[in-house]
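Exercise 7.
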Amino acid sequence: MKIVLLSGGSGKRLWPLSNDSRSKQFLKILKNDEDRLESMIQRVWGQIGKAGLQEHSYVATSKAQVEMIHSQLGSDINVIVEPERRDTFPAIALAATYLYSVESVSLNETVVVMPVDPYVEQSFFHKLEELQHVLNNSDADLALMGVKPTYPSEKYGYIIPKQKAEAEAGAEADANRPFVEVHSFREKPRQEEAAEMIRQSALWNCGVFAFKLDFLINILIAYELPIQYEEMLKRYGRLPKISFDYEVVEKANRVAAVQYDGDWKDLGTWNTLTEEIEAPLIGKGIITEGSVNTHVINELDIPVTLLNLSNVIVAASPDGILVADKASSPLIKEVMKHSDQRPMYEERRWGRYRVLDYIKYPDGTEVLTKRIFIASGKNLSYQYHSLRDEVWTVVSGQGDMILDDRRFTVSAGDVVSIPKGKKHSLRAEKDIEIIEVQTGTQLIEEDIVRLELDWNDIIQFCTVME
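Solution. The predicted structure, written as tokens, is:
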């Protein structure tokens, strides 16, 4: 069995902590068993490890999230990278071609696809094995995981069992089967409709489904789409932007579902996420005793103080500050949907950076200031920029610097000038922090040409040692 974890999201629902490169699954605000803060993706990856499934798991994601995934899960993670964002059907199709043509996975192998960030118990991941058993012991093309509802929610999709629909028509259901046949789907019904469907044993659709690899490969062939990974990459931008549910699941004739009875939550909004955050205050600040069911999550270095405000979420980051009634917090996605602000904080495979200041002068010159942290033993890529000059001031730590094939040591107090076009890299011998000041007429993250990533390959470029 192979597992494909879908990691996407535009980062709007949990703004300002989340953004295009740091979606909700990367926010380190949940406590683990060691009383340390971890992200949703780290929590799920740990649960997959406890179930003994990590070596069979892959993360399908966009280019913008690759560095963050490596930063939080390590460099050995199997990552399948979409050339661009196009919804779940293209993403899963690309993953299928990767498994088939690159990993040489058998066409009879079960592939389980699921979100990267469900908030569930450990038993959820042992339940995944049942999806494989259903496919092996029934004529189902797809096997879904359904959650037993705890209340008639209007926020979720529902799986309607066929056996209940047939029972009402006089057919007898087989109560001994470990799965049910699926009759239909209903997306986000009204509360009274949801209550009626629950009476018919409907399940919440948690976005987990399984199929044999040949099922999807044959669909791609029928659609005249490539089944070789490299060819799919070339065609990817022309694939329809459509979800896998609409394009495949709801069109399938033989769909089964297994029931998960444990806790399951979609921590996609501030009001649901804060239900699982133990500490009311994360970061610098004060919350007075008169504040009930209030949370402050502060990533800034300045304190936030709340006086007698209840049922409120305050989130502060370099991207902005949110003050909202918890019940109204889901509105933030609509409010921010047209925002194209660049991310002010990002995690990378080598560390992290935070934008401290940005200004654009009347003559068009832009100046951007960053605080960059590189973890000991990690390095930046060997790179150059075409549109900007940089000046680095080392604040703390020590590193091995390469600038246009010259190699030298830098430490606290050193200042390095890097004109546009100059190739450079830095490896941290000790944790190192630098202040980077960029100057140019177009300061964008895309202005970077990476020549090498591995330090052992980078140092081969050096011709002068100092």
